[in-house]
Amino acid sequence: LKHLRLVDTGLTGQIQLHEIEAMENLEELYLNDNSITDFVDYNENCTASELSSAAPSGNSDDFEEGWMDMETFYLSFAASATTMFLAVLAILWINPHWSNMWFYFAKTCVLVTYGFVEDNIRRLRRSGNA
Predict the structure, then answer these.
(1) Max Cα separation, the chain?
(2) Number of other residues whose CB lies within 10 A of the CB of residue 102
(3) In this model, does residue 55 exceed pLDDT 50?
(4) Whole-angstrom distance, CA of residue 70 vs CA of residue 43
(5) Fewest CB within 10 A of the end CB: N or C in the chain?
(6) 3-state DSSP helix/strand/coil percent for the chain, to nearest 5?
(7) Which superkingdom does the taxonomy of this entry point to (predicted)?
């Protein structure tokens, strides 16, 4: 890979410069007329050596290791879980038949689990006394 052309790609966001910097054979990086060029001051193109000077350092607070922002992941997971919980509550409140079926299902699950645990505890007690 000698040339990396990012002209008119329609990409948004930041380029991970440390990944591009690792390409030792890269001679030129074309960025003109692209919305992702805000991280570098070059209008036409830049070489790999110039690119390495623009890359964030490893100890920077702005640069995080990994491919996923964990804070955003936790917030979006909490929002999704809350939305799903509220949707289930709304469905159960709107349709009384589904509400009755849900509580019947929950009751059946509790009774089956209780019976399973009770049977296994009896077997363990019998095998321990023998």
Answers:
(1) 85
(2) 14
(3) no
(4) 34
(5) C
(6) 55, 5, 35
(7) Eukaryota
The reported pTM is 0.36
Q: Rounded to whole angstroms, how far apart are CA atoms 47 and 36?
A: 17
**Three-state secondary structure of 46-64:** ECHHHHHHHCCCCCCCCCC
pLDDT at 103: 92
Closest CA to 39 of 61, 54, 21, 58: 54
Q: How close are the terminal C-alpha atoms of the chain, in Å?
A: 74
17 in Cβ contact with 42 (< 8 Å)? no
| Residue 42 scores a pLDDT above 50 | no
Could you read off the pLDDT of 44-53 as tens digits, one per residue? 445 555 545 5
pLDDT the model gives residue 115: 92
